[in-house]
């Protein structure tokens, strides 16, 4: 019985030691994560500061250029100012181009989805037409087929409008 008590004490001692090691490793992990969090916060602050500086620089450039940015460079305009105006316009047009490309990709994706929907509708119409002919009179058959064709035509028109 004394041996089993010593065995239990040894087991508990070993378990306590293992738990202490786990606790210390978790404390170290928390320290490392805290340090990384602080570094990330500092980086975020630096990025915010850089963004603010860039915005301020953009505003000052815009003010420096004044109304010349919106108007085309005139003959009386010095070459450097004309170059800056053209560069600003080029930058703005590139940004506008990126926006339009994104919109075009979204429209193409939507078009693809609509074409898939049309294909599914056509398949379901093809499957349901024989059932409709079997279950309804001739008047209802022609009306439901016309109705389906009308819906498909409407979907195709909507797809063309999106393009």
Automatic annotation (TrEMBL):
Residues 23-64, 90-124 form a coiled coil. Keywords: Coiled coil. Gene3D superfamilies: 1.10.287.1490. The keyword Membrane does not apply. InterPro entries: CC149 (IPR019179). It comes from the Eukaryota. Belongs to the CCDC149 family. This is Centrosomal protein of 162 kDa. It comes from Mesocestoides corti (Flatworm).
């Amino acid at each position: 019985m004394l041996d089993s008590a010593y065995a239990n004490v040894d087991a508990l001692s070993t378990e306590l030691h293992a738990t202490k090691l786990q606790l210390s490793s978790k404390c170290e992990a928390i320290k490392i994560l805290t340090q990384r969090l602080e570094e990330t916060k500092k980086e975020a602050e630096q990025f915010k500061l850089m963004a603010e500086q860039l915005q301020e620089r953009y505003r000052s450039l815009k003010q420096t250029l004044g109304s010349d940015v919106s108007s085309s460079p005139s003959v009386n305009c010095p070459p450097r100012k004309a170059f800056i105006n053209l560069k600003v316009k080029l930058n703005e047009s590139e940004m506008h181009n990126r926006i339009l490309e994104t919109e075009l990709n979204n429209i193409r994706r939507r078009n693809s989805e609509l074409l898939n929907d049309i294909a599914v509708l056509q398949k379901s119409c093809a499957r349901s037409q024989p059932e409709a002919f079997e279950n309804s009179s001739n008047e209802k058959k022609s009306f439901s087929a016309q109705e389906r064709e009308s819906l498909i035509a409407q979907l195709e028109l909507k797809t063309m409008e999106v393009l």
